[in-house]
Amino acid sequence: MGVLPGAGAICEWISVNSLLQSFLLLLATATDRELAHVVEYLKAENRILRAKLPRRITVTSRERRTLLQYGRRLGSRLKDVIGIVSPRTFARWLRGEADPPRQPPAGPGRPRTEAEVRELVLKLARENAWGYTRILGELKKLGVAKVSRSTVVNILKEHGLEPGPRRGPGTWSEFLRRHAATLWACDFFTARVWTLSGMVDVFVLFFVHVGSRRVHVAGLTAHPDHAWVAEQARSVVLTFAELPEKPKYVLRDHDAKFGEEFDEVFAATGIEVKPVGPHAPNMNAHAERWVESIRRECLDHFIILGEAHLRHIVAEYVAHYNEERPHQGMGNVPLSGAPAEEGSAPLSLSEVCCKERLGGLLKHYYRPAA
């Protein structure tokens, strides 16, 4: 049993059917002259309606069959009344040919730049702080001459890149990469120490070389006043003077233990102290990461009895960290250099030696030199 159409569809069908019957009745009773007038009127009305519609009207397969049903009866006179499509298109329908695929209209302006040139522009912009003028010069140097300034600007804007050169110091990550060889970071960490007077917090001041990740412990005390911190800074300056690569920057946080005298000690030797943003540990991430390492790998395993005990523990860990421990961030090799070369002969367990620190907590495996 079929589904009955809705009331709205029935009313629409009745309305269209009544209009068609009236039109057919008019045609049946009209004279040739009157029919000519009817056709002229319908053509004029059709032109007015077409003027209010889009230039191209797409018809469905069902609508095409309807037009073919009535249009083929008119023969050559069809061209006098047809308006929805051209007579040539109607003739193609009669032959059973499909409409050719419509080509997208070409956009205004010049064709898009070749993909490789676009990728090169983006590469130069992302890897450098250059503006479009400098990028254009690099393109010409590489033999890409048929690119205008506006083309480079448009390519950069399409990908959210600033066409002008970047001003100012750049991002924090760029600063760290640029100055890693001459950049040190410093910070404090605390350790709970048992003394004869009870439990006390001892503060350890340390420095990390950002480029090599090597650590230098300046000193430790339970009373880190400004005078003590400045004295450790003077000692560190003497250590820095012996390095082949002289430091230019020292990072520190806004800890109140760092006084003005601390900064002045470094400034007197041409080293700029750069305080990182408050509550921004990621800006001093290398120092924060080292504190995490020494706590997890070393300090959390001890009950520390006095400052001398803490000093020994820290010194042993720093020696292990700087000379023996592989570092994932540095190619998974020790900071002292590359690991031993692989031998051609199979490795024998008898060749592997172990060096222990802090009662076996820290182990270093190695093969003795031949």
Q: Can you characterise this structure?
A:
The protein is of the alpha/beta class. It folds into three domains: 63 residues, no CATH class; 53 residues; 160 residues, Nucleotidyltransferase, domain 5. The chain is built from twelve helices and ten strands. Strands 1, 2, 3, 4, 5 and 6 form a six-stranded mixed beta sheet that branches. A two-stranded antiparallel sheet has the order 7-8. A two-stranded antiparallel ribbon has the order 9-10. Helix 9 runs parallel beside helix 10. The chain is elongated, with a radius of gyration of 42 Å. It starts with 6 loop residues before the first helix and ends with a strand. The relative contact order is 0.05. The N terminus is likely disordered.
Characteristics:
six-stranded mixed beta sheet; Nucleotidyltransferase, domain 5; elongated; 3 domains; about 375 residues; 12 helices; alpha/beta; about 40% helix; two-stranded antiparallel ribbon
Describe what is shown at a glance:
It is built from twelve helices and ten strands.
Q: Percent of residues in helical segments? A: 40-55%
Order of helices and strands: HHHHHHHHEEEHEHEHEHEEEE
CATH fold type of the largest domain: Nucleotidyltransferase, domain 5
Overall structural domain count: 3
The CATH architecture of the largest domain: 2-Layer Sandwich
The tally of helices reads: 12
Strand content: 15-25%
Q: Mean of residue pLDDT? A: 80
Q: Which structural category fits the helices and strands?
A: alpha/beta
Which descriptor suits the 3D outline?
Answer: elongated
Task: Compute the CA-based radius of gyration.
Answer: 42 Å
